[in-house]
Every structure is written in C-alpha cells, then in structure tokens.
Design goal:
The chain is of the alpha+beta class. The protein has one helix at 3-34, and strands at residues 41-44, 47-55, 71-76, 86-89, 93-94.
Length: 105
C-alpha cells in the first residue's frame, strides 16, 4: 500500500465519522428545537399522524443561521402500525401534547 492510498483511507474514515456526527447533531436539533422523536405526533391538513421518519437532509438554513423544519413521514394516529406511511413534507405542526418547553424558539 502506498502513501496515497493510506492517506485516502484515513481521510475517508474521518469524512464518514464527520457525516455521522452531523446527522446525529441534526437529529438532536430536531428533538430539542422542534420536539420530534419516535413517539411524536404531528398534525397535517387536520389529520394527526405519528412520526415514523425525519429527513434531516431536507432541513435548510434560515437567514439567522437556524435550521428550518425537516420533512417527516408518518402513519395516521391510532392505526396501530398497520397504516400506510405518508410523506407529510414540511407541512406539519407538532401536537400540543408533545411540544417541549420552548419549542420553535
């Protein structure tokens, strides 16, 4: 193995670690700022959904440096896991019951 291959492997490992760390930080941001977790319930178009996935790559930077809401997918609340997963995009609001103190600030 020559020096170039060795450097490439080290750099690739560091990049992968940084990408994983960034993903975890964005998930933490979603949890603490938007109140999203695996049990969260959101309302979209008057229907309540239980969140199944959060697309952190969809978060965009606002002018003030904060991040905008992520796109989420969920199932209709009460479908007991048998419901179809629906993409809600960014058109959702956290239900008041699940809102953490200071959410959205």
């Amino acid at each position: 193995m020559d020096y170039g291959d060795s450097v490439q492997k080290v750099l690739l490992r560091k990049i992968q670690k940084a990408e994983q760390d960034l993903m975890q930080l964005k998930l933490d941001y979603c949890r603490f700022i938007f109140g999203l977790n695996h049990r969260s319930k959101v309302v979209s178009n008057g229907v309540t959904y239980q969140v199944r996935s959060v697309e952190v790559d969809s978060m965009t930077r606002n002018e003030d440096g904060s991040f905008g809401k992520p796109e989420v997918s969920g199932v209709v609340d009460g479908s007991e896991g048998t419901g179809k997963v629906t993409s809600l995009g960014k058109d959702w609001e956290l239900t008041a019951v699940d809102s953490p103190v200071g959410a959205g600030h």
